[in-house]
Amino acid sequence: MKYPLADEVLLIRGNKSFLLVAKAGRPFCLCIETSTEEICQGVEPTDLIVVSAPEGGPLEPAMMLVDLVRSYQTPLLVLPKDHPGSRRISRVVSVAPEIFTSCSIRRGTHPEQHLVCSSDELAGMMLKGTVEGIEISGLPLSASIRAVKCRITTELPEIHLFSP
User: Fold this and answer.
1) Of 11, 45, 57, 126, which is most buried, counting CB atoms within 10 Å of its CB?
2) Structural contact between residues 5 and 145, judged by C-beta atoms closer than 8 angstroms
3) Which residues contact 156 (CB under 8 A, 6 or more apart)?
4) Domain tally for the chain?
């Protein structure tokens, strides 16, 4: 099924988890940092940025992650497979032209960007960026989809300088 998008993101929600799916919108270089190397990959405007929250939780941190990658090219961090911190990662990000959701991988340990760790209820989907929007196959019947605005703005408060 195809979903047209402009600057919105798709929210794919299961009963207990969700995915945010956005198009990159412009070309940039994304760095992926592992414990042994730095991998830099080119990102095209139709590539997807997928944030997965396998345990659910608030939507705002996931929106911030989309914006950090899309607007500021924040590097992605990948932990070693046996790192104890992977159990505490509540949201993971993948960036690629096509992304497959899987519940059989450990969160935050895969530099391969064609995979994203998901809950079992959202596993098995293939998400593909297109010029018109996003193409999804394998969408579970229990999942709901809606387009949401996702742009974090940073308006600085007025600053008053005090003289001594």
Assistant:
1) 11
2) no
3) none
4) 1
Q: Please report whether residue 102 resides in a domain.
A: yes
The pair of three-digit structure tokens given for residue 161, joined into one six-digit string:
């300088």
Residues 6+ apart with CB under 8 A from 80: 34, 35, 109
Closest CA to 145 of 7, 9, 33, 6: 9
Residue with the two structure tokens 């990948």: 78
Tokens of 147: 């387009």
CA angle 146, 125, 108 (to 5 degrees): 95
Structural domain of residue 15, as residue ranges?
2-148
pLDDT at 128: 98
Mean pLDDT by 10 residues, the chain (164 residues): 87 96 96 93 96 95 94 92 83 96 81 90 97 95 89 58 56
Compute the distance between CA of residue 38 and CA of residue 93 in angstroms, rounded to an integer. Answer: 16
The distance in angstroms from the start CA to the end CA of the chain is 64
56 within some domain: yes
Would you say 126 and 136 are in contact if contact means Cβ atoms under 8 Å apart? yes
Q: How far apart are CA 158 and CA 164, in angstroms?
A: 19
DSSP 114: T
> What residue type is 85 in one-letter code?
G
